[in-house]
């Protein structure tokens, strides 16, 4: 395990493989391990960097700061420590929001951006209300986690992905509640980044699941078209395609990155 220090807090990360750099950014209530199977394939031809955001996985909690900007700043510090100045970004859900913050700050360093079940839109008022309800529900953390994690998966996958769901519940049950709250508040207050996508000169891709219960794939498609980005839809997948349809999701990412690991 590798750690680096950010404001006297230990942040957990992994760097594997050699070649062009790919940065993997995990989603809400997830950690570095969500990428295990995908990272194994990518690391055959690339240097793959991933980290646990503060308060998740093995990283220490940093309280009372803006989540998305904070996570992007920490990621940038890690990349600087590793002497990396050019990279492709893949962000899953909340990780996509972090990727957008990073790409906005360092557009010339971004060689490719993949929003993996994510969006450049800010939270709607309805979504902000849902985040506020979730913040209140954290007073009963374990009950909240069991419900919130299960709802990330459409009903057809709640049975087939039971092992992953149970693992997520177990891993998040030991987390600092304040770290989860920072993430929720950060997502609620995040910036609109449509212009970031439009202004990037590198290849930008949205990958969406047709069955996604969190993001409407039809709206994601319209967003991608409006932002002049590539759009790819996974037919038999929801929000968590890295587990729901791992082979298809991995193949799609490899093709989008133009990587042949065979």
The count of helical stretches stands at 12
Strand percentage, roughly?
15-25%
- The CATH architecture would be 3-Layer(aba) Sandwich
* CATH superfamily membership: Alpha/Beta hydrolase fold, catalytic domain
Computed over alpha carbons, the radius of gyration is 17 Å
* Quaternary class: single chain
Order of helices and strands: EEEHEHEHEHHHHHHEHEHH
Overall domain count = 1
The general outline is globular
Keywords, separated by commas or semicolons:
262 residues; Rossmann fold; globular; 12 helices; alpha/beta
What does this entry show, briefly?
By secondary structure, the protein is of the alpha/beta class. It is 45% helix and 18% strand.
Give me the secondary-structure topology.
Elements: E1 2-6, E2 9-16, E3 21-25, H1 36-42, E4 47-51, H2 67-81, E5 87-92, H3 94-105, E6 110-116, H4 125-137, H5 141-150, H6 155-160, H7 162-173, H8 177-188, H9 194-199, E7 203-209, H10 217-226, E8 230-234, H11 241-244, H12 246-257
Parallel strand pairs: 3-4, 3-5, 5-6, 6-7, 7-8
Antiparallel strand pairs: 1-2, 2-4
Helix pairs in contact: 2-3, 4-8, 5-7
Give an overview of the whole structure.
This protein is an alpha/beta fold. The protein has 12 helices and 8 strands. The chain has helices at residues 36-42, 67-81, 94-105, 125-137, 141-150, 155-160, 162-173, 177-188, 194-199, 217-226, 241-244, 246-257; strands at residues 2-6, 9-16, 21-25, 47-51, 87-92, 110-116, 203-209, 230-234. The chain has an 8-stranded mixed beta sheet, sandwiched between helices. β7, α10 and β8 (230-234) form a beta-alpha-beta unit. It starts with a strand and ends in a 5-residue tail after the last helix.
């Amino acid at each position: 395990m590798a750690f680096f220090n950010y404001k006297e807090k230990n942040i957990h990360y992994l760097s594997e493989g050699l070649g062009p750099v790919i940065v993997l950014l995990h989603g809400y209530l997830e950690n570095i391990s969500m990428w295990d199977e995908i990272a194994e394939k990518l690391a055959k031809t690339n240097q793959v960097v991933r980290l646990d955001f503060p308060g998740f996985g093995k990283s220490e909690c940093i309280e009372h700061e803006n989540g998305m900007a904070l996570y992007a700043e920490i990621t940038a510090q890690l990349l600087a420590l590793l002497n990396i100045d050019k990279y492709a970004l893949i962000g899953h859900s909340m990780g996509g929001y972090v990727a957008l913050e990073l790409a906005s700050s360092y557009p010339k360093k971004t060689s490719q951006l993949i929003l993996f079940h994510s969006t450049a839109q800010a939270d709607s008022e309805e979504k902000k209300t849902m985040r506020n309800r979730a913040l209140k529900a954290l007073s009963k953390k374990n009950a909240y986690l069991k419900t919130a994690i299960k709802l990330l998966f459409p009903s057809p996958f709640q049975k087939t992905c039971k092992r992953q769901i149970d693992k997520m519940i177990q891993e998040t049950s030991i987390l600092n509640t304040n770290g989860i709250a920072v993430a929720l508040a950060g997502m609620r207050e995040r910036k609109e980044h449509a212009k970031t996508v439009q202004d990037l000169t590198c290849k930008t891709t949205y990958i969406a699941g047709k069955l996604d219960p969190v993001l409407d794939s039809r709206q994601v498609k319209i967003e991608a078209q409006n932002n002049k980005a590539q759009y790819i839809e996974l037919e038999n997948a929801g929000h968590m395609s890295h587990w729901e349809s791992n082979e298809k999701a991995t193949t799609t990412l490899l093709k989008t990155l133009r990587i042949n690991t065979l």
